[in-house]
Write a structure and sequence with these properties.
The protein has a single domain (44-353), classed as TIM Barrel (Alpha-Beta Barrel), CATH 3.20.20. It is globular and about 50 Å long. With 354 residues, it is an alpha/beta fold. An eight-stranded parallel beta barrel has the order 3-4-7-8-9-10-12-13, surrounded by five helices. Strands 5-6-11 form a three-stranded antiparallel sheet. It has helices at 4-20, 25-36, 39-44, 81-86, 130-138, 164-175, 200-215, 233-246, 267-273, 284-297, 313-321, 331-336, 339-353; strands at residues 57-59, 62-64, 68-70, 91-97, 110-113, 118-121, 148-153, 181-185, 223-227, 250-253, 277-280, 303-307, 326-329.
């Protein structure tokens, strides 16, 4: 039957998801990656489609095999890049990486809201630290992978904001030889005081310092700023001005939100989860609105990567049509499974034929 090749992976993943969602979210994350290592997984969820080459595009001087990326936070420590590349992602963003290793916030720190197809996380930049992650990246055989790797960098929790720029520069230098682009993360709500670095003077100081370090290299790499979805238009205007003035490549919009508006999950359950960043379907409209605003205000050559609430193929295609140069999945990948990547590709290829 012609529908089976398309429906079978969806059906199988929904069965697997039912059981995975019986396990605490953080444990399920590692269990999922173990399951995806099984040889059968890449047969059920093949990473490529017919006419795959048509999806390649050059953005910021980098050739992306396709415009579908995996956002930071999924593979914080660069442990699964080869496996995730086989699932069909065009680019994978590791991190957030900090100079020193840190355990992150106390558990539980990741919560599912299936009624909303959403997650709340307050992971707190848990990662192995820049030295260990750089060594892990160094050991990769990139010749066997058709994937772009981004490095999302941040500051350690114990680093005062007035010294934050040093943390970003340390990560930049340690990862420079091993990633294809950088993302400056000042928009996570899970590191105390971090979002204060989105304020004009602090933000410009960090971006200018990173870009100066970039310009000192024989060959520069694209640098992006990841912004929160909780910004007002006047704040976005300031950010556009700062990004333009600093000379970095572009913006990733958006990170998770601190808002809890419009959730179907009962108030008590949401309150019980506590603080953290909300991702998934509830932030789709806000993230799309920020994309529209950026496209209307940014210089034409500024690269914009759209992230936030991408749960379906048509929705992902729409973001690209609305001007996103690339898109990133995260929560949609968890709720819809690896088959979502292929469905987006199939829709993009079929549209290209029309």
């Amino acid at each position: 039957m012609p529908g089976i090749p398309y429906l079978c992976p969806m059906f199988l993943y929904r069965i697997a998801r039912f059981f995975l969602f019986l396990v605490p979210p953080e444990s399920a994350h590692y269990l999922t990656m173990w399951l995806l290592k099984l040889p059968l997984a890449t047969k059920i969820f093949p990473g490529t489609v017919k006419e795959e080459a048509k999806l390649a595009k050059t953005v910021a001087g980098i050739r992306f095999p396709n415009p579908i990326g995996l956002g930071a936070g999924f593979d914080k420590n660069a442990k699964w890049i080869d496996l995730l590349a086989q699932l069909g992602f065009g680019f994978i963003e590791i991190g957030t990486v900090t100079p020193k290793p840190q355990p992150g916030n106390p558990k539980p720190r990741l919560f599912r809201f299936p009624k909303d197809k959403a997650l709340i996380n307050r992971m707190g930049f848990n990662n192995d630290g820049a030295d260990v992650i750089a060594e892990r990246l160094r050991s990769l055989d990139r010749s066997k992978m058709n994937v772009v790797i981004g490095g999302n960098i941040g500051k350690n929790k114990v680093t005062p904001n007035e010294e934050a720029v040093n943390d970003y520069l340390i990560c930049f230098e340690k990862l420079f030889e091993h990633v294809d682009y950088f993302v400056v993360n000042v928009s996570s709500p899970n590191t105390p005081g971090l979002r204060e670095l989105q304020e004009k003077d602090a933000l410009f100081g960090i971006l200018q310092a990173v870009q100066n370090a970039n310009l000192a290299k024989p060959k520069q790499k694209p640098v992006f700023l990841k912004i929160a979805p909780d910004l007002h238009n006047d704040q976005i205007d300031e950010i556009i001005e700062i990004v333009t003035k600093s000379g970095i490549t572009g913006i990733i919009a958006t990170n998770t939100t601190i808002s809890r508006e419009g959730l179907k999950t009962d108030f008590e359950t949401v309150e019980k989860s506590g603080a953290g960043g909300l991702s998934g379907k509830p932030i789709a409209q806000v993230s799309e609105g920020i994309l529209w605003y950026l496209k209307s205000k940014c210089p034409k050559d500024m690269v914009i990567i759209s992230s936030g609430g991408l749960m379906h193929a048509h929705q992902s295609k729409k973001r690209l049509e609305e001007g996103a140069d690339l898109i990133q999945l995260y929560t949609g990948f968890i709720y819809e499974g690896p088959g979502l990547i292929k469905r987006i590709k199939q829709l993009l290829v079929s549209t290209d034929k029309q």
